């Protein structure tokens, strides 16, 4: 089955991983900007990182027939440096017209601090004034519920925001309904050390239905599994779910969401041209 991984950090993965993903049916992916494992010191450091995301990774993916897209921001972990964050937000528009840029992300909260909220709101303003989609990181473990509530309050507080163009990621059982009920898209992250397993993701699909739900691996430089989306496909098959339902979640839903970005020009693999998948 063809699939799309809507949240994966390929800068921290090898070219062998691209090959493996392609063999497993991955035809497209989107890579939000994130933390490098250390706090970067200058706006130039981010400019170079954005060049990597908008140029080099796209070419590396294309060698394996994978279409690579990206999102730009400064991560919440680095938002405590408000001055640097503002310099980066001011620089991001240089990149917004490049062909693989889908929007602003992954913005969000980490420890739910005041500075993180300030920078979250300034990213939101950037997205709204440039008609960009938004991809949101919700905090881990014990900070998740409170952080998700704070994020939803900030999003709901701005009437200009089109909620169907916002993806709230890393949802779990105690947050997914709040996100979907408010009209946003929700991403379930399959991650070995925290977040969600394929079985828990399948449970959530069974509880809430497939609409506005996405599944991703968030594969990065930590303990993570870039092939986690195929694990979810297998779990859904084990439970006897229809191929059409599985394909909706791992292929059609990402396309429907991403097609709202002006830069998204995805070409389905040739074989699909004969029996086009409805978006
Ligand atoms: Zn991420």
According to CATH, the homologous superfamily is Metal-dependent hydrolases
The number of helical segments is 10
| General shape | globular
What is the terminal separation in angstroms? 16 Å
Number of domains: 1
Structural class by sheet pairing and helices = alpha/beta
Biggest sheet record: 8 strands, parallel
State the CATH class. Alpha Beta
Spell the H/E element sequence.
Answer: EHEHEHEHEHEHEHEHHH
List the bound ligands.
zinc ion
Rg to the nearest angstrom? 17 Å
Task: Based on the coordinates given, report the CATH architecture.
Answer: Alpha-Beta Barrel
Beta content comes to: 15-25%
Give the low-pLDDT segments: none
Share of helix among residues? 40-55%
CATH topological fold name: TIM Barrel
Strand order, largest beta sheet: 1-2-3-4-5-6-7-8
Give the rounded overall mean pLDDT.
94
